[in-house]
Each structure stands twice: as C-alpha cells, then as structure tokens.
Amino acid sequence: MQELKLFVVVPCYNEEEVLYETNKRLSEKLDSLISSGAISPLSRILYVNDGSSDGTWNLIQSFHKDDERVWGISLSRNKGHQNALLAGLFCAKEHCDAAISMDADLQDDIDAVDAMVAKYKEGNDIVYGVRNSRKKDSFFKRNTAQLFYRVMKLLGAQIVYNHADYRLMSKRALDALSEYHEYNMFLRGIVPMVGFDSAVVYYERQERFAGKSKYPLKKMLSFAFEGITSLSIRPIRVITSLGAIVLLLSIIMMIYTFARHINGETVSGWSSLIISIWALGGLQIFCIGIIGEYIGKVYLETKARPKYIIKELLDDTRRTQDND
Fold first, then answer.
1. What percent of the chain has pLDDT over 70?
2. How far is residue 25's CA from residue 108's CA, in Å, rounded to a whole number?
3. What is the CA radius of gyration of the chain?
4. Fold of 6-216+306-323
5. Which of 48, 58, 154, 226 could bridge 88 with an S-S bond, Cβ 3.0-4.6 Å?
6. How confident is the model at residue 209 (pLDDT cuts 50, 70, 90)?
7. Which position has the higher pLDDT, 151 or 169?
8. How many angstroms separate the CA atoms of 110 and 278, rounded?
9. Torsion angle of alpha carbons 127, 169, 136, 105, nearest 10°?
C-alpha cells in the first residue's frame, strides 16, 4: 500500500506567542508517524497566516527555512478563520492524499492525529475530531455551546456535536468540498454535506497554551448567527409561522372587541393597546432584520468575490530558490 502523504493545515492569526511550541510538537508528531511508517516522509505542515499584525509570518518563514516539511501561505489581508482554513486545505489538496485541519493554540490534542490516520486507512474519507467533554469550559460557554448545537439541529443542519474544525479529509473529500462555491462558508455544516464514509475520534480538549482567545463572546455570537443563516432557510419559515400566529391572534382579538362593543361594554385598554403596538413593531423589525440578513447574503453571493487572496506561498519550490 502506498504511503500516506499527509498535510497538517494550521490557520494562524496573531499566534506569535504559541506558534514556536506548536511547530515543535507538530514536527515531533510527524517524526513519530514517519518513523512508524504510518505516513510518507513527503508529509508537510502548512501554516496559513491570516493577515496577522504580529510576528507570526516571520516565524513561519524561519520554520520553512530550517525545515523543508514546513510550508506557509500568507493571505493579502485578514479574511477570517474559515477562509484561511479553506485557503490551506485547497492548497494542500493538490499535493496530499489527506489533510488534517487544526487550530494553532494547542487546544486540539495532537496525539489524536494517530487515531485519525488509522481511521482513514480503514476507508473513511472524513474523520471528525470530537471533544469528549466540556468540563474545562465555563458554565456560560458550556451551556451556550450546547444551545447552539441544539438550535442548529432544530434548524435542520447536519452538524457533528462538539466538533469544531479538527478533522481529517481525504483528497477525494477535499475535491468535493471545492465544488461548494458559496461565499459564506460554514465548514462545520458544509463538510457533513459532502458525504462519503466518515468516523469520529474523541479527544480531551486542552487549555490554550499561550496568548488570548480569538473568539470573544461577540465574535462567537456572530459566528453562530453566520452558521445558522448560511446553512438553513428555516428561520424564514419560522417567521412565516409566527406571522400566521400573530394574524390569528389579531382576528380573535377583533372578534372579542366587537363582542364587547355590541354588549355596550367600554374597552379602556390603553395599556394593552400600547403594549400591542410595541410588541408588533418589535416583531416586525426583528423579522425584517432576519430577512435582510438573507438578502445581504444573496447580495454577497452575486458579487462572486474571492474568499481569499494569497500574497505569498512558501513551498518546496520556494525553499529551493531560497537556498540557491
């Protein structure tokens, strides 16, 4: 059987504090897998610099200069985690048999790579890295994450519970993923749509090794809303159902008001009238906002803008030129 040419794709945004340790551990993992014959010596680590403002790209360049197995991509500007990840995966698919995506902060257990490779060799095109618990999360984060997965499932999204972006994808799966051309890509929901045989590897998620989280509460909420509106039109249908319910209630209230009027009863109801106006007004604005979100996405899709632009690529060819 031909040796597996594996690429590990790591998107990086201002990861200067942790990247040296990340590269050290990933290099050791590649050494171990190559020595055991699990992967080919032609396997690589591919870092994607997502418009970092610190010394992240300088570190990647130094790693590349010292080790031919380290490749690097620098995007022209910050395009967000999902687009940086796509840039790395689509670059890797031209050279690899399979690619593993993971974050640079060392929260994803690198030792789970062994099990992912084993699952791939059993015939699985996609292997999901799934955290086995959320005990280390705060009460707020743990419960909001559970709520997010439940809402996504309720809206019909095929999303793997407790899975982020730590996964292995075969070249065939990556080729299929490249057929999805939408601008708003939410990979946690798109990848299960690709199909093919898949498996799950469970691991213990660690504390961040160094630096600060790139996902504060505001960004997490934005990411969740992006995922919901990118994968499902069910919120639009919920609005339709809600509108029908409000219309039905208004008809009932109209009948009730007429009955009171016929009986000669005075309806004081100023408070209820004001509350109704505010409630319906707020509901209308909320519904218009959700509809506007979908219209905005259609607007962005019709422009067909590139998801990312590669400013610089460090690969084997560039390394040869640098050493001449």
1. 62
2. 12
3. 25
4. Spore Coat Polysaccharide Biosynthesis Protein SpsA; Chain A (3.90.550)
5. 48
6. very low
7. 169
8. 53
9. 150
Residue 86's H or E segment, with its range, is: helix 81-92
For residues 67-96, average pLDDT: 88
Alpha carbon distance 227, 125 (integer Å): 23
Q: What is the pLDDT of residue 10?
A: 92
- 4 secondary structure, DSSP code: P
Find, among 201, 17, 33, the residue nearest to 124 by Cα.
201
Q: What is the sign of the dihedral through the CA atoms of 189, 173, 85 and 122?
A: positive
Mean per-residue pLDDT of the chain: 77
From 61-65, 112-116, 188-192, 228-232, the region with the lowest mean pLDDT: 228-232
3-class DSSP assignment, residue 6: strand
| 134: phi then psi, degrees, rounded to nearest 5 | -120, 30
Sheet bearing 163-170, strands edge to edge: 198-203, 126-131, 163-170, 98-101, 6-12, 44-49, 70-75, 310-314
Is residue 190 packed enough to be buried (19+ CB in 10 Å), middle (13-18) or exposed (0-12)? Answer: buried
Confidence class for position 204, pLDDT limits 50, 70, 90:
confident
| Angle subtended by helix axes 187-194 and 217-231, to nearest 10 | 30
Domain segments of the chain as ranges: 6-216+306-323, 234-303
- Among positive and negative, which fits the CA dihedral 78, 194, 99, 102? positive
Q: Is the separation of the CB atoms in 104 and 176 below 8 Å?
A: no
* Residues 141-164, mean pLDDT to the nearest whole number: 69
Residue 271 makes CB contacts below 8 A (sequence gap 6+) with none
pTM: 0.69
